[in-house]
C-alpha cells in the first residue's frame, strides 16, 4: 500500500501569493505533477491540514481545481488555517466526511486502515482533541485490533524544538498517547503543521510530520527565535506499507534536479 501525504498547502485564490512571495497554488500544482509521475502510482493521497490559508470558499475551489487531475482517492483533514464548515462544503462529495461535527473519519485502503482526526479549534492556531473525538478513536481502534492502522491529524503530538511552532501545537498530546498505547496495531501517527519532516517515538509507535507543499518553517532551535519561513524545496511523503514489515516513509523533494545519472560509465 502506497499513501502520499501532502500537507500545509496554504492555497490562495489564483494569482495571489503568500506574503507577496509564495505562489502556493503553483507549488501545489508542481507537487501534484510529481505525484502523477510516481511509478507505481499511490493508492491514495492524504492532505493533512491547512489546505488553504484563510478558509475562504474560493480558496477551496482552487484546491479542488488543482487536485482534479489526480486519479486516486484523496482524503482531507482540517488544520488551523482551515474553516471546518467551508472545507466540509468544498468536499461535500467525499462520502467519508461526516455531515456535522468534527471532521473525524476512517477508511480502509486494502489491508490498512487510515483514520483522520480533526485537531482544529475554530479561531485558534493551536489544536486539541476533545473527549468525544478521543472516545471515538478508542472505539474505532478497538473494533479492528489486527488491522494495521495509520492515524492522521494536523497538529503533531510532540514538541519539535522550534519554539514558536510548539507554542501553537497540540494541547493534549498525553490524552492521545493514552489511547494509542492501548492499540498496538497503530503503525504511525502522521501530522503536518510544522512545515518540516520529523519523526520520533510516540506512545509505543512512531509519530512523524510532513513538509509543506509550499514554504518551509526555518530550522532554528533557539528558544528566543521569532520564527520565519524559508524557500527550501517543497515536498511530500510516501508511506509504504508491506505486510510483515510495517511502514517505511520516503521524503520526496519537488523541483528541477539533475539526474537520474547512471552509476556506471
Find the structural class using helix and strand composition: alpha/beta
Strand content: 15-25%
On the 0 to 100 scale, the average pLDDT is 97
How many helices in DSSP terms? Answer: 6
CATH C-level: Alpha Beta
Query: What's the order of the H and E elements?
Result: EHEHEHEEHEHHEEEEEEE
Protein model, in words:
The chain is α/β, with parallel strands linked by helices. It has a single domain, classed as Metallo-dependent phosphatases (Purple Acid Phosphatase, chain A, domain 2), CATH 3.60.21. It is 22% helix and 24% strand. The chain contains six helices and 13 strands. The protein has a six-stranded mixed β-sheet with strand order 4-5-6-7-9-8. Helix 4 runs parallel beside helix 6. The radius of gyration is 18 Å and the shape is globular. It starts with a strand and ends in a 12-residue tail after the last strand.
Give a nutshell description of this structure.
This protein has 265 residues and is an alpha/beta fold.
Itemize the secondary structure elements and their pairings.
Layout: E1 2-6, H1 24-36, E2 44-48, H2 57-67, E3 74-77, H3 84-90, E4 105-109, E5 112-116, H4 131-143, E6 149-152, H5 163-166, H6 173-181, E7 186-191, E8 198-202, E9 205-209, E10 216-217, E11 229-230, E12 235-242, E13 246-253
Parallel strand pairs: 1-2, 2-3, 5-6, 6-7, 7-9
Antiparallel strand pairs: 1-12, 4-5, 8-9, 10-11, 12-13
Amino acid at each position: 500500500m502506497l499513501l502520499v501525504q501532502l500537507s500545509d498547502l496554504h492555497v490562495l485564490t489564483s494569482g495571489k501569493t503568500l506574503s507577496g512571495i509564495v505562489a502556493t497554488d503553483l507549488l501545489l500544482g508542481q507537487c501534484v505533477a510529481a505525484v502523477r509521475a510516481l511509478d507505481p502510482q499511490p493508492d491514495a493521497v492524504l492532505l493533512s491540514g491547512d489546505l488553504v490559508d484563510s478558509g475562504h470558499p474560493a480558496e477551496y475551489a482552487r484546491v479542488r481545481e488543482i487536485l482534479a487531475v489526480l486519479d486516486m482517492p484523496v482524503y482531507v483533514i482540517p488544520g488551523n488555517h482551515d474553516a471546518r464548515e467551508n472545507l466540509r462544503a468544498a468536499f461535500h462529495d467525499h462520502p467519508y466526511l461526516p455531515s456535522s461535527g468534527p471532521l473525524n473519519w476512517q477508511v480502509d485502503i486494502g489491508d490498512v486502515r487510515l483514520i483522520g482526526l480533526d485537531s482544529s479549534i475554530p479561531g485558534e492556531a493551536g489544536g486539541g482533541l476533545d473527549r468525544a473525538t478521543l472516545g471515538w478513536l478508542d472505539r474505532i481502534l478497538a473494533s479492528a485490533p489486527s488491522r494495521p492502522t495509520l492515524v492522521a491529524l494536523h497538529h503533531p503530538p510532540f514538541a519539535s524544538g522550534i519554539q514558536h511552532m510548539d507554542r501553537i501545537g497540540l494541547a493534549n498530546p498525553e490524552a492521545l498517547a493514552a489511547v494509542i498505547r492501548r492499540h498496538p496495531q497503530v503503525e504511525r501517527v502522521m501530522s503536518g503543521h510544522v512545515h518540516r519532516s520529523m519523526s520520533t517515538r510516540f506512545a509505543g509507535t512512531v509519530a512523524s510530520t510532513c513538509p509543506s507543499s509550499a514554504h518551509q518553517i526555518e530550522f532554528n532551535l533557539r528558544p528566543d527565535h521569532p520564527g520565519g519561513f524559508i524557500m527550501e524545496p517543497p515536498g511530500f511523503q510516501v508511506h509504504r506499507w508491506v505486510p510483515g514489515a510495517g511502514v517505511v516513509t520516503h521524503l520526496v523533494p519537488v523541483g528541477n534536479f539533475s539526474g537520474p545519472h547512471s552509476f556506471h560509465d
